[in-house]
Design brief:
With 436 residues, the chain is of the alpha+beta class. The protein has three domains: 160 residues, Beta-Lactamase (2-Layer Sandwich), CATH 3.30.450; 109 residues, no CATH class; 131 residues, Heat Shock Protein 90. It contains ten helices and nine strands. Helix 9 links the parallel strand 5 and strand 6. The site of adenosine-5'-triphosphate (ATP) has 16 residues, from helix 9 and helix 10.
Length: 436
């Protein structure tokens, strides 16, 4: 259950409890008020009758007047009853404004009060009967209690509305904050929070924005450094390749020429030796060419990514004829030089990893345009990553990731449930980086 629902639910429960307690207190208070009012009115009426009857009552007319004086009374009814129990005259209770509902009347009705006051008129023995009627009082108490309860209810509803609005505002901010943190975790540092509103939340938003600005600055400088490192690496590789080519290559060529000459010698021993040396040199030359190819990818890319990858496939399929290589490279990919180089290196390292560390029967290479860049995907079915092998000293995967990160792309290595490995990179088309 979300925190918002929990807090609002608790507040609502407390308000309902407060309403129930308030309502119960109101009922108890109303009941005692109704009882007291009716009781006081009844005793007053009784006293007034007795006081009147203390004087000389000589005629039934006087008695009728006494009873008539109760006409319209709100709480007490008076009746003159003769010795046979017949009601001679009876007062009527004043009209109730609007009666209370039956359940409320049942709750509020105090014990009924009645009193019989005998009068001994010569020749006319009779009694004045007083009875209580709480209806008017209960109607009044009902109106007061209902108004008080409705006021409390309105207050509770207003409180809930204000608290809900405050929570919606605070939780809205928390949700944006959470989404911002998620963006940051995914490496998006350009996210900013609105700094308007309550000072506490504005301070949080300022802190968050400051953090993302710092992270963006660090990330930029990291990317610059990575690009510089790659440039340096490439320069160094190019230097090594140049030396290998110029120094070793030319000597190998010279040895090959000498060996070829020796292989044409009249002396069969020299001829055989020359032939062996020439074969060995040809073998070393092939290896040096391979090494040069690895060191200078730019040369590989001279005829485009598609041709370079076809070369790679040829290179590996010669050594591993049992592996089926498949490549699907969309034509007309708008990759800049760096992204193209990165794509090539990813494919090259992934192929090398697949054949070195796994036992694949097939390797699939796919490069295609996607919504946010160009996707490079190399998938093999060689059995999957061995976790124990991952770690320090293994530079291939880390190097690919750094390269992609320097281009602000995304890189993932998936272990396909012990089946194989899928390396994926999405390289953004960033022409701006071309000159960086
Ligand atoms: N396609 C793959 N199949 C099986 N295991 C793999 C595959 N790719 C990588 N691995 C595992 O991940 C480890 C790390 O790979 P990584 O390319 O980083 O280093 P490496 O190939 O061991 O060494 P380096 O590439 O630095 O010469 C490998 O040692 C291997 O255990
Ligand atoms: Mg490797």
């Amino acid at each position: 259950m979300s925190l918002q629902v929990r807090v609002l639910g608790s507040i609502a429960a407390l308000l309902v409890l407060a309403l129930l307690c308030g309502g119960t207190l109101l009922l108890l208070h109303a009941r005692s008020v109704a009882e007291l009012e009716v009781h006081t009115a009844f005793r007053g009426a009784e006293r007034s009758i007795r006081d009147t009857l203390q004087g000389n009552v000589e005629h039934t007319v006087t008695l009728r007047q006494v009873v008539a004086s109760f006409e319209g009374q709100r709480h007490v009814r008076a009746a003159l009853v003769n010795e046979k129990g017949k009601v001679i005259v009876q007062s009527r209770i004043g009209l109730q404004k609007s009666p209370a509902p039956r359940w409320f009347e049942n709750l509020m009705t105090p014990p009924p009060m009645a009193s019989r006051i005998p009068i001994n008129l010569p020749g006319f023995p009779c009694v004045v009967v007083l009875t209580s009627d709480p209806g008017n009082e209960i109607a009044e108490v009902w109106e007061n209690a209902r108004n008080a309860f409705l006021t409390m209810l309105a207050f509770c509803v207003a409180t809930m509305a204000v608290v809900s609005l405050a929570f919606a505002y605070a939780f809205g901010f928390l949700r944006r904050f959470q989404a911002g943190l998620r963006d940051v975790a995914q490496g998006r540092y350009d996210v900013r929070l609105d700094t308007k509103g309550a000072p506490e939340l504005a301070a949080l938003a300022h802190g968050f924005n400051h953090m993302t600005e710092q992270l963006a600055a660090f990330s930029d400088s990291n990317q610059r450094l990575e690009r510089q490192i790659q440039n340096l690496q490439e320069e160094e590789r190019a230097g090594i390749a140049r030396d290998l080519h110029d120094e070793v290559g030319s000597y190998l060529f010279a040895i090959q020429v000498d060996a070829s000459t020796a292989a044409k010698s009249a002396d069969p021993q020299v001829r055989e030796l020359g032939g062996t040396i020439r074969d060995a040199v040809l073998h070393v030359q092939r290896h040096v060419r391979d090494i040069l190819r690895q060191l200078r990818p730019a040369n590989d890319l001279e005829f485009g990514l598609q041709a370079a990858i076809a070369d790679l496939i040829l290179f590996w399929s010669r050594r591993y004829p049992g592996i089926h290589f498949e490549s699907a490279i969309s034509p007309g990919l708008s990759l800049d030089r760096r992204s193209e180089e990165a794509a090539f290196r990813i494919v090259r390292e992934s192929l090398s990893n697949a054949v070195r560390h796994g036992e694949p029967r097939a390797i699939r290479i796919a490069i295609f345009d996607q919504a946010d860049g160009v996707e490079v995907c190399v998938e093999d079915d060689g059995g999957g990553l061995k976790q124990s092998d991952m770690g320090l000293g293994h530079m291939g995967l880390a190097g690919m990731e750094n390269r992609v990160r320097a281009l602000k792309g995304r890189f993932t290595v998936e272990n396909l449930q012990g089946q194989g490995v899928r390396v994926r990179a999405v390289l953004p088309r960033m022409r701006a980086l071309e000159d960086a």
